[in-house]
Amino acid sequence: MSTRRTELAEFLKACRARLTPEAVGLPPGGRRRTPGLRREELAQLAGVGVTWYTWLEQGRPINVSGQVLDAVATTLCLTDLERAHLYSLAEATPVRAKTGVHTDDLVLAEILTALDPVPAVITNTRYDILQPNKAYSDLFHDWHTMPCVHRNLLWCIVTEPLARKQLLNYDTEVPYLVARMRAAYVEHIGDPAWETDLARLRKLSPEFAQLWSRHEIAESQPRLRRIQNPIAGELAFTVTELTVPSHPDLILFVETPADAETRDRLPLTRRASAEV
User: Fold this and answer.
1) How many helices (H) and strands (E) does the chain have?
2) How confident is the prediction for the chain on average, in pLDDT?
């Protein structure tokens, strides 16, 4: 079975498991060995053959039409983002062509420098840290103390003890980042770099493995990140993710102070050049 078909099968199972019979107008019935709808119930509601749907959920290489996928997506109550994710997994829509990453782009470097003293960083959709500005490096200096395979935003948050301690809204931030990575993964299924990193991180962090298995996906949205800095105290930032049109695989994260207190205390996070 191909990696893409495996991903499609697991996504369908996860979506089916979260639906209750009552949610789709079916009687609750007796005890169920597994949560959610049964395959035959979903197939009946979607108007597709039980055998065909079973094969689809088993990851078999069968032909999938857009019309049938749409019926399955509607029955599963998928959001627009989840529906697009399903189409990509089933290869029913063109996969966006991969674009090279140029971390030495002078324009991006100038933007990062100009944003200082606001912390900002450029990552790829796998969250590898490609280029931070000085304000970002100073603010998150303590989150990169352990040796890593590479500098990666998500790896550091889930593996660094200080990051876990200092990120006050860890319980909402990490699931969101994993869901964003899962949404990006659809365009990199089978990519050796992605597959290797995901395997390592699942082995390294049972928490990440559990979140990854949920098959949750999320759209980019501004959000609040609360940090307990050892010198500046509690800080609050509005995190904004900006896409780079010339490089679709890049993300510009900007951490804007969310209140006057954070803006006033932010200079306390700066480090002298000799200390970096």
Assistant:
1) 13, 5
2) 87
Tell me if 59 sits within 8 A of 1, measured CB to CB. yes
CA angle 128, 129, 133 (to 5 degrees): 165
Q: In what helix (H) or strand (E) does residue 255 lie, and over which residues does it extend?
A: strand 250-257
How far is 206 from 203, CA to CA, in rounded Å?
A: 7
> Do the Cβ atoms of 3 and 195 come closer than 8 Å?
yes
Place of tokens 């199972």: 13
Query: Mean pLDDT throughout 178-201?
Result: 91
- Counting Cβ atoms within 10 Å, is residue 182 exposed (0-12), middle (13-18) or buried (19+)? buried
**Structure tokens that stand for 92 in this block:** 């029913």
Residues 202 and 218: beta-carbon distance below 8 Å: no
Q: Which two tokens stand for residue 146?
A: 């352990």
β-pairing, 233-243 with 223-229? Answer: antiparallel
CA-based nearest residue to 209, from 141, 268, 154, 128: 154
Q: Let me know: does 69 contact 92? Beta carbons within 8 Å.
A: yes
Could you tell me which of 171, 221, 185 has the C-alpha nearest to residue 88? 185
Beta strands in the chain (DSSP E): 120-124, 129-132, 223-229, 233-243, 250-257
CA 275 centroid distance within chain: 33
What would the pLDDT profile of 21-50 be if each residue is shown by its tens digit?
Answer: 877 777 766 666 777 888 999 999 999 999
Summarize pLDDT for 60-118 with one digit per residue, the tens. Answer: 888 877 778 888 998 999 988 898 899 889 887 544 444 444 545 678 888 999 999 99
Residue with token string 């990509």: 88
Hunting for tokens 């959000």 — which residue is that? 223
pTM for the full predicted model? 0.77
Sign, Cα dihedral of 209, 81, 66, 88: negative
Round to whole Å and give the CA distance between 212 and 181: 9
